[in-house]
Every structure is written in structure tokens, then in C-alpha cells.
Amino acid sequence: MNTTPIVVAVVGVLLVTGPPGVGKTTLIVKVFETLKSSNPNLKIQGFYISEVRQGGERVGFQVVTLDGRTAPLASSIISSPESLRWPTVGKYKVDVASFESLAVPELQVREDTDLFVIDEVGKMELFGSSFFPAVLRVLESNVPVLASVPIPKVGRDIPAG
Question: Helix H segments across the chain?
């Protein structure tokens, strides 16, 4: 199995792809940090997804904006009445409303935006109705994009919708 992220470039769009745990988010965060430190006036919008751990075990994921705000994306330990209606991916319940309330505004196209960072466009993120249209607007804006798209572990398929 390939243990290195694959980078695909299309005019104005740089996609990082690979199976879970290969380092896509790590690469994107390092690129963002390097760009921001070398050019503090650069206007970069977007978010990345980080793991939530308890006692050394991964129990979920959160969305993190590039200015440090966070919101839950998915959890294996939440059990509220509303979470019973949330979609699931494996052992995780996906908090679509929380994710979209923080991530989608970060994808609003503005005149002064130099770069969009979208980590990631994956199954959990695509459950909502607002996220994918926001990503399409970003892609149509001609603002450069750095994004990650996961590929499934061997033997698994990503559903087409």
C-alpha cells in the first residue's frame, strides 16, 4: 500500500489524495503554515479536519478554521437524542449542522482571497446540503485551491452520492 500522499495539480487546483492516515492533513497544514509565515498578508480561507483523542484513542473529528475556531464533525462517544438522527460513517456519528455552520462560511468567495484550503472533501463532509455547492463555487471562482480528497482503504468504495 502507498504510504505517501499523492499530489495532483490542475490549473489553480492542487489536490492531495491518499488513504486514511497517509499524511494529507499534515501536508496541507504545513503548506498553510509555511505560506502564512513567509507572507503574513496572504489572504487564505478555509479549514482542515483534526482528530479528537481521549486517552490516546481517536473518538472523533473536528473542523478547524485557519484562524483556530473549532466545531465538532463526528464522534464515536456522543449520545444525545438529536445524535440518533445523524448519519454514520463506521463508528462515528456525523454532526452535519455543526460542521456546515463553521466550514461553509469559510468557503465564501471574496475579492481579496488569495487561496482556499479545503481539508477535506470526504464522505463525512458531503452529508450536508450546503458543503458541496460551496466547494463548487470556490472551484468556479478561479481562486487557487489546496484541497484533500481521500481514497478508500483497499477493498472499500466511496459512494457516489
Answer: 24-38, 96-103, 131-140
Q: Considering the domain boundaries, does residue 159 fall inside one?
A: no
C-alpha grid cell for residue 25? Answer: 492533513
Give yes or no for a cis peptide into 106 (omega within 30° of 0): no
Could you read off the pLDDT of 83-95 as tens digits, one per residue? 788 889 999 999 9
User: What is the grid cell recorded at 152?
Assistant: 478508500
Query: What is the C-alpha to C-alpha distance for residues 61 and 71, in angstroms, rounded to an integer?
Result: 9
Angle between helices 96-103 and 131-140 (to 10 degrees): 30
Residue type, 12: G
Q: Give the total number of structural domains in the chain.
A: 1
Can you give the residue range of the structural domain that contains 10?
6-150
- Express each pLDDT in 41-100 by its tens digit: 999 999 999 999 999 999 999 999 999 999 999 999 988 888 788 889 999 999 999 999
Provide the pLDDT for residue 81: 80
Element (H, E) at 49: strand 44-54
**What's at 11, amino acid-wise?**
V
- CA pair distance 7, 97, nearest whole angstrom: 30
Q: Which residues pair with 50 in a beta bridge?
A: 62
Q: Which residue has the cell 496541507?
A: 28
pTM of the model: 0.86
